[in-house]
Predict the 3D structure of the following.
Amino acid sequence: MTAHGPITRMQMMPPEQALAFPVQDLSSDYRDGAAPDLSNDPSTRLWRLATFLPAIITTSGLIAAFTDWFAMGGLSVFEGLLIALIACTFFWISLSVSTVTVGLVNMMRPRRAAQDKPAPAQDVALLVPVYNEVPWDVFGNACAMLEELDRTQHPHSYTLFILSDTRDEVIAEQELRAFAMLRANLPDHIALHYRRRVDNIDRKVGNLADWVQRWGGGYDAMLVLDADSLMSGQAIITLTDEMAHDPSAGLIQSFPQLFGAETLFGRVQQFSSTIYGAALAEGLARWADHEGNYWGHNAIIRTAAFASCAGLPRLDTFRSKGALILSHDFVEAGLLRRAGWGVRFMPQVKGSYEEVPATLIDYVLRDRRWCQGNLQHLNILGSKGFHPVTRFHLFHGAMGYLLSPAWFALLTVWALIGKGEEANVIRYFTGENPQVAWPEMGHVSNLAILVFMYGMLLAPKFLGAAALLRSGPSLRDLGGAGQFVLSFVTEIIVSVLYAPILMVQQTIAVARTWIGFKETWTPQARQGGRYGFSTVLKFHALETVAGVLLVAGMSEGIITLWLLPIAVSLALAVPLSMLSGAKLTRFKWTSRQLGTAEVFNAPAIIQSAKRERSRIRLVLEKTDHVAAE
């Protein structure tokens, strides 16, 4: 019994329409007979060349320079490994720069005209998997999306499913009451359903597989959302129209913008995603073409295609047998492309949103789970039939985490070798000179290297800001020119401060994965966890110790002062982590800082979602209070 009367299982879910969902064999090729012939844009090879060739040439030049530099006294094996580390880290920086550049060029080209003819009507399921999430946030977003779709003209039919894997009985009861409340308040013609699994086997993968097998046969497409996802009616309709017009598309991924951030760390992520992410996403969409990727949410998928070719097998690795594929989205995109279906990005779709971790610790905890999943992809690289670009996506995801240990190793070597033969950590403690030493560098050469490296790291930010002037939000929606410049500079400073801490934490995440530590699947603390000083100190102990040792070495004259910015960041990891959760919305002036259009001129869908969240929360909390009495 709920606050709105009893709800039967039949009322919660529609009649089942089964769809076969076979598990795929990664050791044999597969082609879906229903997939039409697919051909990329003839210019795709040129765009790929324009993206990868500059990165390869620049990295090759750097290798040549360092080889010549180190080889003055003969090149040792250790020096060769050091050059390989430098080349590896630099290539991915260079690739990021060239991807953003390609994106900026593509944004300046004329857009192709939208389809004039109406899209064939589609039956689309909006799927929202949840696991111990805040019920009023989930159902508030759902209500806002359904109401906006109902107000917008379109030929399609939409049904929203809340697919609960919640284990907490209190939250499950709130979910039921929230569903009953929406079902009672929404018009009868709006289709909303709720299902809670008895056993949450295989986590999100199993949750979605259960829906596909039992109800997938009744829908042309499914638009997969996360618990924190929010999409405007127009964004949902645009994705649906695009899939209806493109019979070769198996999956179309939107580019979700971040919203709802109130803390310093959350706002930094939200600002950087808005300002710099657009050009990066455009570049990725341009060179990936039909070999795109999937980020697990805010994407529309052809249901029959997905069922035919994206059933995930268990993995046998050297650490475990029958392991669940954790970062399932990359693999599902690869399986769709392997079967002949196109996988596309549509970054130009506006109105696609998701939320962001509020504090540094919340971000790191989520990142550890992602690290484990992405490194698992290294076991899938040799799978049969994958497109080369799919293999690159899988490898790129793993490298996003492996680069942190590489950077950490480089900085450790630089710190140990110090200022040269007469002033280094090894000689200071043992009296022996190291077998490898940085070649003689004056202040000018040191400065030139740092300017070059920081220039490459910051180039995507400046290019992204330039792209903003082309097709992003107006400066008025960013608080005006002065506020935008202040936010831009603040974001760079704060990002530089947190980067070394994140490098160490990702190194820890890789180490935890390597030794077989199983990360706990917990709901994201979207409002930010509350962490005491002792908890934060324990969490950041390694960074703090490393930073203090670096500063001590500098005071003794055995570690170069060029590492000072990194040393300060690491030594101050605890206060910086606590500062990350500071609420900028507490005061009028700070609430403007790092603001985006979602802050200064929030779209209707965000405003509507906030109202519905508040309304449902008040009702649920009032009911809980009455029940407690």
